[in-house]
Amino acid sequence: MDIKKNNLKFYALYLPQFHQIPENDEWWGEGFTEWTNVKSAKSQSKIKKYLRTPKNNFYYDLMNKDTVLWQSELMKNYGVDGLVYYHYYFKGKLLLQKPAENILKWKDINQNFFFCWANHDWNRSWDGTRELLVRQEYGEKDDWEKHFQYLLPFFKDDRYSKVDNKPMFMVFKSDIPKKEEMFIYFEKRCKECGFNGLYLIETFWSAHKNIDWENDYQIFKKQCSSVTERIFLREFSTSQQIYFYSRKRDLLNKIYRKLRRMIGEMTGEKYICKYNGNKFVSIMEKEEAVDGMAMRGLCFEWNNTPRHKERGTIVSAPSKDRIMHYLDSIKNSDYVIINAWNEWAEGMILEPTEETGYRYLEWIREWKMGVKK
């Protein structure tokens, strides 16, 4: 089916942790993938209605080319324009790189994509501890050049997304030593390799707790690299922060959650934070401080209890009307980044599930085609 084209392109963040790697075998046990957490969550009866199961029990392996072909056809059929692969690079060390490298190799797969550099430390934190597994380091110019050389074959691929002949490249964390110097170097190297520059996207989290989010956005903008083209408003993270801080609810919420957990420890009744997704989407519609640099986000639901168990958070699914209204409000934008295509252990999924079917994909297709059902 042909999807009606408009200015708004739908891209979805893509987690590549659905295949076995030696590091995960060592850290989490032989054969660990993201499915391990998803399957083990079924025993958590109190959150059962929020859990999601792959339709037809399709617990896929991303090393299987047929799986990637299936994902690519699914995207095409429902109007998802591309994927944003998490890129794990630690001063020369790569993790979970094979799915992206396979896309580079499998030229017959028609899938648009670009990278989000997940430039955070890897920690053992799912069980409440804080053990460093891999430290993120950035190095100096020689290290930047090695990183650029790894990225270059992807940038040159026709399927790698570009704006005005600038390869798109998102950064998960912005507090990078020598950030300005490093990305000016990347920009220079892109131009030397035939591009018009680098289309750098920094991620906004609204993390300053004592500042209203509008000022926070402006402060963040001033701290961006001079190379930065766009600021991604990651959802639900941004709207959740606005919900807490702009309404001065942060302290009260912290006290409330702490009391609930203390009572839970005494009674054995575990407490999980739950929020109404419609409230967050309503906040997303009213983000008045955004400007031409903002790249809007979208999230349909969230449940990270498969990873964090009782320490997790649940955001209920917004209504279809609320999502459609939000998309109407940003219809003149160029991109919306969905969180996520396949974050199964955090309940952020576009792929079909037993519980919701193809619901969110169908909403995207309906909106793009202008069909109201």
Overall number of strands: 17
Distance between the termini: 17 Å
Which radius of gyration do the C-alpha atoms yield? 20 Å
Number of contiguous helices: 13
Instruction: Indicate the low-confidence ranges by residue numbers.
Output: none
Order of helices and strands: EHHHEEHEEEHEEHEHEHHEHEEHEHEEEH
Strand residue percentage: 15-25%
Largest sheet: 8 strands, parallel, barrel
Shape: globular
Q: Which whole number gives the mean pLDDT?
A: 89
Strand order of the largest sheet: 1-2-4-8-9-10-12-15
Helix percentage: 25-40%
Structural class: alpha/beta
Summarize the structure.
By secondary structure, the protein is of the alpha/beta class. Helices cover 37% and strands 19% of the residues. Strand 9, helix 7 and strand 10 form a beta-alpha-beta unit.
What does this structure look like?
This protein has 373 residues and is α/β, with parallel strands linked by helices. 37% of the residues lie in helices and 19% in strands. It has an eight-stranded parallel beta barrel with strand order 1-2-4-8-9-10-12-15. A hairpin with a 6-residue loop joins strand 5 and strand 6 (131-134). The protein is globular. The mean pLDDT is 89.
